[in-house]
Amino acid sequence: xxxxxxxxxxLADRYHLxxxxxxxxxxxxxxxRDLRLGREVAVKVxxxxxxxxxxxxxxxxxxxxxxxxLSHPNVVTVFDTGEDEGVPFIVMECLPGRTLATAMAAGPVxxxxxxxxxxDVLGALGAAHAAGVIHRDVKPGNILLxxxxxxxxxxxxxxxxxEPVGGTITDTTTGHLMLGTPAYLAPxxxxxxxxxxxxxxxxxxxVLYEALAGEKPFTADTPMAVAMAVVHDxxxxxxxxxxxxxxxxxxxxxxxxxxxxxARFANxxxxxxxxxxxxxxxxxEAELATIAEVPPADQTSVLVGxxxxxxxxxxxxxxxVQRRRMALVAAxxxxxxxxxLVAALAFGHDRSAVNSPSTxxxxxxxxxxxxxxxxxxxxxxxxxxxxxxxxxVPGKGRGKHKRxxx
Length: 406
Hints:
Phosphorylase Kinase, domain 1; 14% strand; Transferase(Phosphotransferase), domain 1; 11 strands; 35% helix; 12 helices
């Protein structure tokens, strides 16, 4: 039995199913109408073949309840859960919009616009983590945009979970080899360790890296090769793939993508502070493409909208980032002092050449003559803005692999 049959035209005598708008690892998402309340909703239906597996069914129901506990303007709201003829379903809000994946399809996105998207997503992640919910599948297809470009996160608590089994990357919900998703997984998740808040932040770092660079940090011919690169390699510095990237934005993304979880941001609030510390980048907002009627099969896309998030005050930038910035500032100040000295010597040489006759009877200059003005070196904040190349992330940048389906 499938949702396309007559038995699934109306679920639980309440939700009238319409067009298929998304496909995920466990279920299909339909636009539907709530006949009782007279509103449009999105309904995610667990596939019948998975509903027959008790472990998957139990997880689907438990995680739906976890997602329903979340209440945040940047989280897709879960209205209801239920069952029809033995098949569980979840009812969510559904508003016109598109995903970050469609915005990224046109190439690298506007940096200032992406900062706002990142803050919205971090607001959602922070609220979820505070409630004990780990997303586990942060990716562009799960970041949904309203028509004015604001973001909302979908699939909280009902995302796929990946574990390494027998040397392959296997989806524990289906037992099948996963394609693509390992590119967004944190190294510790690939190694079989539990998902944490830092795992979600790593995944968001990968999303932001891809949005800025126009390509994933790690690509290879097979999902397993991608997974091994994630575990063992450092990503290529963002500036190598996008020379105009804001240095502060690059440092923020690369901090989130540290292989050691303890070297990443401590929490979503900490990462949001780093995003806010980046000076606004002028430029037009990215043009967002219209989403396809049915998104790719490897992602769940519920078309929704959102109000902007307001994340709380956050922790400081990691110490290694501060040291790297100070080194850059010291180098810049040294270079500036050298330029001033060279200019002063050249100026003195020119004056001595003009006044070279030793018998000149010219009267001494008045003591009131104005002394040459030497411009003071720029402040630390100014120098940070002027630096065009971000400091390299520790380790070798070996993230460039052969392209493939990773």
